Amino acid sequence: MNLPSIQVANWDRARLARQWRAARPFPHLLFDPFVSEAAFTGLRKAARDEPLLVQADELYQFQGSAEPPANETLRAFAEELGSSAVREALREITGLATSAVSLRVYRYGPGDYLLPHTDHRASQAEVNGEEERRLAFAFYLGDQPRGGALQLYDCALDDNALVRTRPAKRIAARPNRFAIFGVGPTSLHRVCELLEGERLSLAGWFLA
Amino acid sequence: MKGPLLLEPPFNQPLFARALRTAFLAPSPRSLTLPSAFSPRAAHALRNLARPHRERFDLADRGCYTFADLYHPQIHALSRPLLEMLRLFAQEVSATALGAGAARIVWLGRGDYSLRLDDARLRPPSEFLEATLDLSPSPHPFAGIVYSEGPAIHLPIAQLPGQLSLVWRGRASTRCDRYRNSFVGAQSCILLRAAFPLAES
Q1: Cβ-Cβ contacts under 8 Å, B176 against chain A
Q2: Do B182 and A61 touch (CB under 8 A)?
Q3: Which residue of A159, A196, B118, B130 has the smallest Cβ count within 10 Å?
Q4: E-only strand ranges, chain A
Q5: Number of domains forming the structure of chain A
Q6: Which of B60, B146, B182 sits opposite A111 (nearest CB)?
Q7: CB neighbours of B147 closer than 8 A, spacing ≥ 6?
Q8: Which of B176, B178, B181 shows the shortest C-beta gap to A193?
């Protein structure tokens, strides 16, 4: 892969910051496309070559790689995504300072899903000594499948518990799309069940 | 269906229940799953009885499913003998004095689920015995109900009409109903769930 693949110097940060603040149901952005066609092709091949394991819990069923992935192209991309240039640009856009990136490869086949959750675990992070997740992202590398959209919820919070949840926005897993959103107690989202095809992505967090 | 809705023989016999005690106490968590406790006709009648009183629960971080409270005044007169029979059976099997607790029928259809967080909000605060009677019209190999206690203990339970499961639930016990995806099919899983807490002495 030819670095840099993320054209961060071309980002219109003021416009993206306005979009971030105006986004509903909670701050998020889409980059369409995110990297050059050549970089996209290289990353897609690397993700398809990455060893994956079936993972299932009450919340999810999918295949996931190790963190960080083994493939050097993917590691280089993670490094670029977590570079000071990208993180500084995202700080200007979102107002959130971050220090590192954590990502894995995910592959959803028919019937796979990720049920609604917020990614927010600030208090748990303090207990476990893990870093706080500030921004969550997904970078789609496969052809657009049927199903598998990222769904964002509009929520009401009362006494640290969600008391109302309503599906508010669906983001299709289009190839070369990068979706990023702020993590907080109401950033409820899910990956809808994949009905047909394959949903291949690099996803993870920008950490505090 | 005429007559009361009751468990099938020999589930009405204390001797039968007592004979199951060793089997119940052996596994961790203490549990027992028994087939043919409830007839298809009785399950059909109970489903129809509860159907007009169904409510939809939809709080995405906890679960999405349909339920009917068995203490609803228009259901309870007919469901009370069954709940009492379940309590007595559970009491004999567990060798523990049990009181009456919450009871509901839950419908889990395509795309439905309930997470441990929902269970945590609904379960009694102290230990109890949970009885689940499967009222589904047809079997399914999908083991959608999963009890857990710590990282090592998992008890999955498949959908089998007429099946009765008894699970002793300590304070650390959790339960979820796994998401029913397109492979599970359109047929609902219908469960009567009753919580029997320790009887107050």
Answers
A1: 58
A2: no
A3: A159
A4: 28-31, 53-56, 60-64, 100-108, 113-117, 133-140, 146-147, 150-158, 161-171, 178-182, 189-191, 194-196, 199-207
A5: 1
A6: B182
A7: B29, B31, B153, B154, B155, B157, B167, B169, B173, B174, B175
A8: B181
Express each pLDDT in B10-63 by its tens digit. Answer: 999 999 999 999 999 999 899 999 999 999 999 999 999 999 999 999 999 999
What's the confidence (pLDDT) of residue A154? 98
Q: Which residues of A touch B116 (CB under 8 A)?
A: 58
The Cα of A180 is separated from the nearest Cα of chain B by a number of Å equal to 20
Q: What is the complex's ipTM, to 2 decimals?
A: 0.91
Interval B151-170: pLDDT, tens: 888 899 999 999 999 999 99
> Nearest-CA residue of chain B relative to A161?
B61
With respect to residue A1, please indicate whether it lies within any of the assigned structural domains: no
To the nearest whole Å, the CA of A193 is away from the closest chain B CA by 7
Note whether residue A102 is domain-resident: yes
Chain B residues lying within 8 Å of A165, measured CB to CB:
58-61
Rounded Cα–Cα distance for residues B66 and A142 (Å): 36
- B61–A118: do the CB atoms touch at under 8 Å? yes
Confidence of residue A160 (pLDDT cuts 50, 70, 90): confident
Q: Which residue of B has its CA nearest to A196?
A: B182
Query: Who contacts B102 (Cβ-Cβ below 8 Å, separation ≥6)?
Result: B69, B71, B122, B124, B194, B195
Q: B33-197: which CATH topology?
A: Double-stranded beta-helix (3.60.130)
What pLDDT score was predicted for residue A118? 96
Q: What is the count of residue pairs from A and B with beta carbons less than 8 Å apart?
A: 45
Rounded Cα distance between A178 and A6, Å, is 11
| Interatomic CA distance for residues A58 and B179, integer angstroms | 8
The CA distance from B104 to B107, in Å, is 10
What's the mean per-residue pLDDT of chain A? 94
Residue A150 domain-assigned?
A: yes
User: What CATH number did the domain enclosing A85 receive?
Assistant: 2.60.120.620
Q: How far B2 CA sits from the closest chain A CA (Å)? A: 40
pTM score, whole prediction: 0.93
DSSP state of A111: T
Domain containing A92 equals 8-207
pLDDT at B76: 85
A26, A57, A58, A120: best mutation site toward chain B, by most B Cβ within 10 Å?
Answer: A58
Q: Is residue A3 part of a domain?
A: no
